[in-house]
């Protein structure tokens, strides 16, 4: 079972609460500890996070050992060197110093070697965790998409999730590893010092705890307010900068340039002021850690001197004890950063868990999968709203599409056209009314099975950052080269692809070749041709294309529609003359239906939209 | 060395703070040396001289004092370093914003908003570590070892020579292996970036994957990619970490060898114990700043990378009219003068354009970012003088004569000898196929661009002799996609005239047909909108833009017609509002709808940057030229 969805590590009432889910929405991005702790218990999140990276644990003891050895080598180097010099001061025979000399040289080498191995092992573990997190997160997100993701429209939810996964990648390295290494070193040093005198060991432990736990905790608490306000100031500055870049024309046209500049300067001053306070606290943390190390040295020295005087400790060990105490504080150095990283990791984990705890919007049906009798569609009394309290997106829709017929659904934006597509593809499940495909309720088909019957050309077409061929073959991975090229040819894309230096192996997408709007649409059409599904949905397939390109793309589409049950969703009234029926949607209801010529004769929304479009100029 | 000219120039601006940072760092190191000496002194006293605690107590107290002083210095280094960096960041961000504003929207049209904002936000932040840590550490890496040697040489020539000899090995290895390894690592992290990009790509395309039933298969692809990545990364890291290995090895082995050599000389009585222990304690202090510099390599690298992006943006050439303004804030009163009569805000013209100082703070509640108007010279200008309403409502007389403009350094011609006259109060519709130069004309008249050749005059005054921001007081612009700023609805309308009274603002909203929908919102005019507020529909945004234009009361209007499909009721409201707005103004309308062209006093048809024909709707139809073809073509497409 997938670790991300595993419920056993989490208190049951927390994972499923709607409030927790809300936390992942667009408004709940910023981690507000006070709000979140009440929703997700930190210990629960922590345990779940641990569970997620459990399989990488085999390498962890080795990594901890190497980490402790690195620090122990440095302690060993300074301690044996001090011992060597102190022994030499007593002018013993040279042979008596051999062991110390070997020890000094040994630790001089092991320090570097252990550090090298430690870094290597830790990176290996971190990379393993990263891979696991990605896969686990994808696996839980996949069934939810797109309906189960609250507010995914805001787009940045996904970037946020990717960033959260990247944050968790540091969970082991910055949160788990340092305290374990610190513990191992502290135990060793404590026992070593205790063998000389218990007071020494206790004084050292006090300094170590101050450096590793007390100071960092205090500063984290003291800095919490500053950090929060700094985050807010940063967000405000960022918003103002986004406004400036995106609204540049409006700012200049209204001669608000200098005002905007002053506004940004004011925000920046506030941000930098808070940053200055945070820097002061950080500086304090660094200074206090150093202070603790030196105080440990001083305290051990002061406590050891009487013991030396009384002969309880040989004076030859005095320098060694002081330097051991100071050098061992190295293990406490990464601990101050543990708390901010812990908070960051828990916040990221909480958001991801909240996402993955959302329930899929469309479930698999229990009964055996029906075989559709034909590819007709029947919509009866369909009502749908995206959430409780929201206005209905579809408010009682009825229509029928016979197998092989062509029907258009038009209307102004917000009429409910896209909602209908989402329901047909079972991205969401309807509550009232029903849709029948080939005589069976849509809910009787598992979403995956259902989508096999449907080809979609939508806008914008997502191109993956890979080759054109792979983008096409997505539709049917086992298609032959000939089949793929035939589809491209029918979509009138082959000539263009063929003209590229790398042909079908050209990289497209985010960092690849930029395709024009028309080319992207033709690629989508080629995909649909390759998929060869009996039902076709054209969702604003030509929106945003110029008139010439639109006509060309429509030609390809006409070819695609042949012999398929077709639903054309559009707000542009182009090429609707040969539709078998046109439904005019407004505010979730069908306000008119009929063929193009009939609708034009009626006084109504269709004619109005048509007239508006008639008078459009290029 | 990770230094570049731009960064050194910036560092020069804060040389005093940087010197303080380095000075405090050096002070802390000197204290560390002193502490080492005292420690050696105390241990010697107890161990060899057999002193008791009271005997060494004064030394111990001085030692304790030093320890606290050292902590204070260490804190000071951090604070001073941040101060220096903060000044540079503030200054650079300010210059970047000024430069963006001077560049205007046209040169930035193809830039990604996110990337630009990233340069201003994260890019500038990357300089923090560079100036606060990397540069001071660079100086300390040179100074502190020298200071340590200053103590070592008088005590022990051999140890001094040994340290001096081993020191160059650290920078040498850092740049020999380090440079190579860094490059390898960096490439690898770029691959990681791509992997992360792939992850995002898959998530964004999940709908597509689902439609094709391919989403489940991606689990294996992701797992395989991650595993491949892990294997190749580890292979690279095995080499990359060698540089750190060598650095560490030189430092620890160096310390070890110093310890052994002084130990042996101590054994043969050639060196006293106290000095031998002091030398042992100095050895790590000698290597420490060099190792710390190594750990700051990333900060240095990030700083240089960020600087490249920042100074690339700052070096973008400005449009002709903007250069002098950014470089030297010159007064332009004499050329401004002709327009004062037509300006509703005469006080503005007397404020020196470059004067950004003296603005204490901006209170957003007072109106949208009213900073500009609160400068001292304009203090008395809050309300509008009584006579302003009696402005002659006739509009400007604008003439474009033989205007040429080309984009991409003259490579992509947009206007080729365009001549156009807008008589006072005349409504002229621009019509033409896409790419015919309609937006270029609007950009020239907004002074976002300056003509390559030709002349533009307004009421007889050449436009290029008027500062752009002064000219823009005369122009109201209703763009096709108005931008709504993060702020309240009121803030967004008040952009038209920041110091308008509430009544004037509401009146403008009424005229724009926006008042009704605004008052229907729970918070009315105080409703937050924009990136972090309510999302308005296209029709609502458009009405706010019209309200802005009403509030501005400029004599010249540039109207970019919206093409978005509005519902019939909204469309009617907007048409009526525009009709009111056009009254009494000279207007240039970039027409996307036939009705706008029909209503205009004159239609100007553009093609390839020239005026092809001009006249009223019926005249042009009768001529059966380009206009006729455009209209029939747009119908034919349907």
Automatic annotation (TrEMBL), chain A:
UniProt-recorded name of the protein: Putative multidrug export ATP-binding/permease protein
Residue intervals passing through the bilayer: 71-91, 180-197, 203-227, 279-305, 317-339
Gene source species: Neomoorella thermoacetica (Clostridium thermoaceticum)
Record-linked InterPro entries: AAA+_ATPase, ABC1_TM_dom, ABC1_TM_sf, ABC_CydC/D, ABC_transporter-like_ATP-bd, ABC_transporter-like_CS, P-loop_NTPase, Type_1_exporter
SMART domains for the chain: AAA
Lineage per the UniProt record: Bacteria, Bacillati, Bacillota, Clostridia, Neomoorellales
Entry EC no(s): 3.6.3.-
Domain ABC transporter: 377-612
Cellular component GO terms held in the UniProt record: plasma membrane
Membrane protein topology class: Multi-pass membrane protein
TrEMBL record, chain B:
Biological-process GO terms, alphabetical: cysteine transport
ABC transmembrane type-1 domain span: 19-302
Annotated region (Disordered), positions in chain: 343-390
Location in or out of the cell: Cell membrane
Transmembrane parts of this sequence: 18-39, 59-80, 138-155, 161-179, 239-264
Cytoplasm as UniProt keyword: no
Membrane-topology descriptor: Multi-pass membrane protein
Domain of life, per lineage: Bacteria
Record GO terms (molecular function): ABC-type transporter activity; ATP binding; ATP hydrolysis activity
One of the record's GO cellular component terms: plasma membrane
Domain ABC transporter positions: 398-633
Entry keyword set: ATP-binding, Cell membrane, Membrane, Nucleotide-binding, Transmembrane, Transmembrane helix, Transport
Presence of keyword Iron: no
InterPro entries: AAA+_ATPase, ABC1_TM_dom, ABC1_TM_sf, ABC_transporter-like_ATP-bd, ABC_transporter-like_CS, ABC_transptr_CydD, P-loop_NTPase, Type_1_exporter
Protein known as: ATP-binding/permease protein CydD
Organism placement in taxonomy: Bacteria, Bacillati, Bacillota, Clostridia, Neomoorellales
């Amino acid at each position: 079972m997938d670790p991300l969805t595993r419920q056993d590590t989490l208190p049951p009432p927390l994972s499923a609460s709607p409030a927790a889910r809300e936390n992942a929405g667009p408004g709940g991005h910023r981690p507000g500890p006070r709000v979140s702790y009440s929703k997700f218990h930190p210990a629960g999140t922590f345990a779940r996070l641990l569970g997620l990276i459990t399989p990488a644990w085999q390498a962890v003891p080795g990594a901890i050992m190497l980490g402790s050895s690195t620090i122990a080598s440095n302690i060993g180097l300074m301690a044996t060197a001090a011992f060597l010099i102190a022994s030499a001061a007593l002018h013993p025979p040279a042979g008596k110093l051999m062991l110390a000399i070997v020890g000094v040289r040994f630790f001089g080498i092991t320090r570097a070697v252990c550090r090298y191995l430690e870094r290597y092992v830790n990176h290996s573990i971190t990379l393993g965790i990263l891979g696991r997190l990605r896969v686990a997160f994808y696996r839980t997100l996949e069934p939810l998409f797109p309906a189960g993701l609250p507010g995914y429209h805001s787009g940045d939810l996904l970037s946020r999730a990717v960033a959260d996964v990247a944050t968790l990648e540091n969970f082991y390295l910055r949160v788990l590893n340092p305290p374990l290494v610190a513990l191992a070193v502290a135990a060793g040093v404590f026992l070593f010092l205790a063998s000389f005198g218990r007071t020494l060991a206790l004084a050292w432990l006090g300094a170590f705890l101050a450096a590793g736990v007390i100071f960092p905790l205090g500063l984290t608490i003291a800095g919490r307010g500053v950090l929060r306000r700094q985050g807010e100031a940063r967000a405000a500055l960022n918003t103002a900068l986004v406004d400036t870049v995106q609204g540049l024309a409006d700012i200049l046209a209204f001669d608000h340039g200098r005002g905007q500049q002053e506004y940004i300067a004011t925000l920046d001053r506030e941000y930098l002021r808070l940053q200055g306070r945070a820097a002061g606290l950080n500086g304090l943390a660094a200074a206090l850690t150093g202070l603790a190390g030196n105080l440990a040295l001083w305290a051990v020295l002061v406590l050891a001197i009487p013991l030396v005087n009384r002969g309880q400790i040989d004076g030859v060990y005095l320098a060694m004890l002081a330097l051991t105490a100071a050098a061992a504080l190295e293990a406490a150095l990464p601990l101050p950063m543990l708390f901010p990283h812990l908070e960051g990791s828990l916040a990221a984990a909480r958001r991801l868990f909240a996402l993955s705890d959302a329930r899929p919007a469309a479930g698999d049906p229990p009964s055996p999968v029906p075989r559709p009798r034909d590819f007709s569609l029947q919509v009866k009394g369909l009502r749908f709203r995206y959430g409780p309290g929201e206005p209905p997106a579809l408010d009682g829709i009825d229509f029928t599409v016979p197998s092989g017929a062509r029907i258009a659904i038009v209307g102004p934006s917000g009429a409910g056209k896209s909602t209908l597509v989402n329901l047909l593809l079972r991205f969401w499940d309807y509550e009232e009314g029903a849709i029948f495909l080939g005589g069976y309720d849509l809910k009787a088909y598992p979403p995956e099975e259902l989508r096999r019957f449907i080809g979609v050309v939508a806008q914008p077409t997502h191109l993956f950052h890979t080759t054109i061929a792979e983008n096409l073959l997505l539709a049917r991975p086992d298609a032959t080269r000939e089949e793929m090229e035939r589809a491209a040819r029918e979509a009138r894309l082959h000539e263009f692809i063929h003209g590229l230096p790398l042909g079908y192996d050209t990289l497209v997408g985010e960092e690849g070749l930029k395709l024009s709007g028309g080319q992207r649409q033709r690629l989508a059409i080629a995909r649909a041709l390759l998929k060869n599904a009996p039902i076709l949905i054209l969702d604003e397939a030509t929106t945003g294309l110029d008139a010439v390109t639109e006509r060309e793309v429509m030609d390809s589409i006409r070819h695609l529609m042949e012999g398929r049950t077709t639903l054309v969703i559009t707000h542009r009234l182009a090429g609707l003359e040969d539709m078998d029926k046109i439904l005019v949607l407004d505010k979730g209801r069908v306000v008119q239906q009929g063929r193009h010529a009939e609708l034009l004769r009626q006084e109504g929304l269709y004619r109005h939209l048509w007239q508006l479009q008639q008078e459009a100029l290029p | 060395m990770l230094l570049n000219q731009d960064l050194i120039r910036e560092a020069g601006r804060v040389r005093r703070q940087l010197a303080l940072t380095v000075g405090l760092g050096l002070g802390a190191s000197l204290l560390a040396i002193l502490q080492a000496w005292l420690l050696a002194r105390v241990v010697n006293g107890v161990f060899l001289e057999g002193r008791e605690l009271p005997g060494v107590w004064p030394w111990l107290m001085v030692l304790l004092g030093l320890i606290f002083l050292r902590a204070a210095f260490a804190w000071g280094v951090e604070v001073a370093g941040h101060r220096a960096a903060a000044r540079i960041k503030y200054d650079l961000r300010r210059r970047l914003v000024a430069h963006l504003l001077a560049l205007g929207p046209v040169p930035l049209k193809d830039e990604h908003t996110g990337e630009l904002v990233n340069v201003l936000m994260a890019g500038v932040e990357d300089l923090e570590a560079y100036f606060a840590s990397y540069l001071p550490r660079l100086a300390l890496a040179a100074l502190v070892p020298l200071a340590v040697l200053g103590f070592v040489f008088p005590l022990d020539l051999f140890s001094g020579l040994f340290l001096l000899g081993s020191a160059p090995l650290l920078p040498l290895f850092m740049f020999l292996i380090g440079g190579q390894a860094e490059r390898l690592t960096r490439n690898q992290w770029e691959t990681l970036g791509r992997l992360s990009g792939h992850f995002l790509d898959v998530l964004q395309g999940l709908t597509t994957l689902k439609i094709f039933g391919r989403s489940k298969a991606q689990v294996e692809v992701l797992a395989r990619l991650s595993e491949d990545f892990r294997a190749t990364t580890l292979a690279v890291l095995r080499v990359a970490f060698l540089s750190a290995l060598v650095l560490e090895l030189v430092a620890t082995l160096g310390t070890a060898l110093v310890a052994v050599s002084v130990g042996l000389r101590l054994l043969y009585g050639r060196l006293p114990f106290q000095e031998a222990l002091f030398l042992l304690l100095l050895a790590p202090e000698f290597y420490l700043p060099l190792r710390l510099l190594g750990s700051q390599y990333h900060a240095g690298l990030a700083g240089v990378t960020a600087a490249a992006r920042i100074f690339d943006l700052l070096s973008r050439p400005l449009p002709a009219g903007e250069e002098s303004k950014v470089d030297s804030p010159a007064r332009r009163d004499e050329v401004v003068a002709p327009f004062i009569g037509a300006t509703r805000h005469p006080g503005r013209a007397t404020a020196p354009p470059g004067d950004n100082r003296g603005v204490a703070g901006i209170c957003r509640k007072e109106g949208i970012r009213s900073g500009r108007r609160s400068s001292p010279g304009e203090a008395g200008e809050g309300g509008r003088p009584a006579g302003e309403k009696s402005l002659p409502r006739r509009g400007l007389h604008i003439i474009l004569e033989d205007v040429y403009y080309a984009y991409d350094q003259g490579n992509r011609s947009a206007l080729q000898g365009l001549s156009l006259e807008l008589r006072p109060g005349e409504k002229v519709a621009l019509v033409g196929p896409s790419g015919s130069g309609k937006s270029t004309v609007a950009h020239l008249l907004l002074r976002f661009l300056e003509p390559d050749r030709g002349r533009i005059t307004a009421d007889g005054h050449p436009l290029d002799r008027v500062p752009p921001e002064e000219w823009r007081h005369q122009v109201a612009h209703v763009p096709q996609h108005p931008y709504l700023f993060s702020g309240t609805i009121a803030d967004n309308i008040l952009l038209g005239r920041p110091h308008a009274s509430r009544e004037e603002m509401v009146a403008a909203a009424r005229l724009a047909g926006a008042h009704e929908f605004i008052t229907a919102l729970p918070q009315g005019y105080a409703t937050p909108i924009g990136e972090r507020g309510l999302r308005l529909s296209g029709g609502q945004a458009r009405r706010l833009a019209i309200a802005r234009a009403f509030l501005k009361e400029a004599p010249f209007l540039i109207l970019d017609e919206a093409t978005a499909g509005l519902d019939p009721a909204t469309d009617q409201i907007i048409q009526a509002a525009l009709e009111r707005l056009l009254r009494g103004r000279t207007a240039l309308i970039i027409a996307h709808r036939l009705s706008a062209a029909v209503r205009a006093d004159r239609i100007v048809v553009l093609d390839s940057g020239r005026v092809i024909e001009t006249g009223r709707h019926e005249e042009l139809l009768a001529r059966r030229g380009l206009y006729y073809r455009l209209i029939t073509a747009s119908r034919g497409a349907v």
